[in-house]
Description:
Layout: E1 2-10, E2 13-19, E3 24-28, H1 35-45, E4 61-69, H2 76-83, E5 91-99, E6 104-108, E7 111-112, H3 115-125, E8 126-130, H4 143-151, H5 154-201, H6 207-219, H7 221-236, H8 242-259, H9 265-291, H10 296-315, H11 323-386, E9 393-400, E10 412-419, E11 427-428, H12 429-432, H13 435-449, E12 457-461, H14 469-482, E13 487-491, H15 495-498, E14 503-512, E15 515-522, H16 525-537, H17 543-554
Parallel strand pairs: 3-13, 3-14, 8-12, 12-13
Antiparallel strand pairs: 1-2, 1-4, 4-5, 5-6, 6-7, 9-10, 10-11, 14-15
Helix pairs in contact: 4-11, 5-11, 6-10, 7-9, 8-9, 11-13, 13-14, 16-17
Amino acid sequence: MLKSLSxxxxxxxxxxxxxxSEGLTVLSGETGAGKSILLDSLGLLLGNRGETAMIRNGCDxxxxxxxxxxADKNGKLADFCEEHDLDFAREIIxxxxxxxxxxxxxxxxxxxxxxKLLKEIGGYLVEVHxxxxxxxxxxxxxxxxxxxxxxxxxxxxxxxxxxxxxxxKAKVARxxxxxxxxxxxxxxxxxxxxxxxxxTVKPKENEKEELEKLRLQLxxxxxxxxxxxxxxxxxxxxxxSVRDSLRQAQTAVSRVNAMLDDRYSGxxxxxxxxxxNAEEAGEQLETAMRETTxxxxxxxxxxxxxxxxxxxxxxxxxxxxxLVQVWxxxxxxxxxxxxxxxxxxxxxxxxxxxxxxxxxxxxxxxEERISAALRLDGxxxxxxxxxxxxxxxxxxxxxxxxxxxxxxxxxxxxxxMISTNVGSPLGNLNKIxxxxxxxxxxxxxxxNLGKSSQIETMVFDEVDSGIGGxxxxxxxxxxxxxxEAVQILVxxxxxxxxxxxxxxxxxxxxxxxxATVTSVYKLNNKEKQEEIARxxxxxxxxxxxxxxxxxxxxx
Length: 555
């Protein structure tokens, strides 16, 4: 609830501090006294747009602050504050300033916030209803949540929302796989064609590098063979070779050893080893020469293989070294296509089961909504009778949505309907009822919904306009009844409504130091009686008006 309101330099108000209490609080005063300024100031704290024209003449800036006491410390506002990293406490102080240059500051418990964020916070704090209000209950988009709050079947709602999330998750999983299958199916023929081409080519790991080495070897084969021949001829050619020279040397050393009793046998053995190595080297050179070919067809074969690999890589826009992985990916994709049919069936079954669960739980909520609507319709009819709207009919219309519109809120569309005249068809609230009728209709709804509302403060701006007498008295009774559940602030010209107030403030306008000033002060019981008498008789208060006021207050 709103505990206090402080206003500085707003239009005709230079300085105002108000302490507010629970129950029904009435604001009265002559037309033009400045009651709307109070509501505009409160609107600034609720996130309404600020205009520099609101700054009092001759002042640099305006400042408005308010203190709100929150009954439910674990409610939706607490969750909202946690989500936006705002310090939440049972007592919230909001302050807002606006300078002549159009710049402003907004603080939530000393934390700076934006106007957009304040607008959202304001929706949790105060609900404002004017005679021509087209938001809140007059907006059909709010009717479903209003009925659910009234019905009190939160557990069934939670089960339904969880079931919907499971259904949505299963549906998304099925749709994703189905899209993959359909996309793959469209590519199946291409995959099979490409895989066949890969199977023909059969690329291998590191094949390009090996082929390029082989090509280099083949291109240099003539030089290689020349050098191998030279080495072979040097070892054991037709002319003097290394092998012949070693044999000659070995023979000569053998003669020396024969004359010197094998004195140089070590030299002989070394030459013998060298001769053996030379002969083995010659044999290996012969093998190397046989392996080294000058066949141009071998070079052409390597070149053709490299061209085939590069052409395949170009088709698939990859490097040659990536061909093996591309081939593997294609085979995996084809395997997945063949296996995904079974997976798709499993996901379809999961989607069907979660959908059935959601529909069953949504039907439970649907029945709860029908039951709650019947209760609300009956109570509303009684309230409308007491508000002198005997000819009016109220009905909560519940229709099933198309499946495409199903969501976590269920399968129902809810709309509050009204007919204000006998024989007239039911229609939307804001299209059928007149201004005065709307005021009483809103009041009747709020009386029934007050205890289920999350809002702790409601403001009614002249909702009693256009009614009087017994009807106005009935409105006063309903406002007082509603004030038992939530804090009610009412701007009124009706003495019958004012008589039911728990607190009464009078708004007056006067001239101070050559400037017009609006003041607001709380009335005691005697002053309240005098104010109601003024509201009954006008500027000149008669004894009869005072007596009537006394009767109204005591009624």
